[in-house]
Amino acid sequence: LEDLQDAFDFSYKLHYHPGRDHSRDPQYAQQVQALQAKLQTLDRQRREVVAQMQQILGRSETLWDFLQQELGAWHERQRRSCLGAPEDTCLLQLQTWFTALGEGLFQLLQLLRVLGELRQKVTYEQDPLQAETPLLETRLKEQLTCLLQSAFVVEQQPCMPNTPKRPLVLRTASKFCTRARLLVHLHDRNHRMEATIHIDRDPPKTRGFRRFNILTSSSKTVLAGDSSREGLVCNFQYLTLKEQKGGGSGKGNRGSAEGPLVVTEELHLITFTLAYAYCGLELKLETSTLPFVIISNNNQLSSGWASILWFNTLSTNPKDQQFFTTPPPAPWPRLAEVLSWQFQSTTERGLSREHLHMLAEKLFG
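The line above is the sequence of STAT2 protein; the predicted structure tokens follow.
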């Protein structure tokens, strides 16, 4: 395209002089016809390029639909693995797919910018670059935004090192860790990517809901390893929680029976925020952990873990902090499956039909 329009532009400036008298120049009409033919060739090529980009964007939207399905399946596997199910939660394959689609879309973005520069040099009436490239760029940036927002995931849910089989139950003053990953492994090494975490940034409007502070550092610079296997990871370790006691809120001020929820049914969220920039595109990416329970002593661990089992078995909304205001009953087949996972995660062997039948008789008579 650049060669075609440079040739057209040179001929246009050399031969096209509409204000002069060309009655004595028999070649002028031929030169104008040749110039018109060059313009038609340039216009045809521009329309072909625009059509190809539209086709590629259509294909990338189809790919994105498939990736969303795969990502949704991974999220479900992660929830099940938190309950002890033997699920594969490795992100390397998803990261490969997300990065490949991201590379293609960012290459298209760079091509669109080059087309914009060509349009600045040469344009004409009904120029397809004038009419179509702004729409293509808007559509492309929407795709990139959706891709990058979904690509920011919590790879490791909050967990205390001394209870690895029971994630999502945290104790105040005890250390815990959590980790997020950006599956699109593309970054600008000159741009410092900062990730921050917040707990209960939008807390439920529930009377007596406890508020907490995250002690130690709540921000980290995202480091990229040399290999794609390492990825773009923000790993928060050695975090601790401290309850806020001021303002009449918190367990110490409201009393154990004053709030609508007991401590072990109060659900909290940690939100990761990442300032991302690449190829001139700047975005604020966010992702949240699964809801977790905060206890103050080990006597509450079993009850807190029961809440985590119930929530992840039955909730259809992974951010529903109000779940236990009206908790639904669990169908026995689903609960039996979760109980079997619990045994399998600890003993490497699930429960047989006879075991589950015995438990059902204990529960239901």
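Note on the example: The first helix runs from residue 2 to 15. The domain at 1-149 is CATH 1.20.1050.20 (Glutathione S-transferase Yfyf (Class Pi); Chain A, domain 2).
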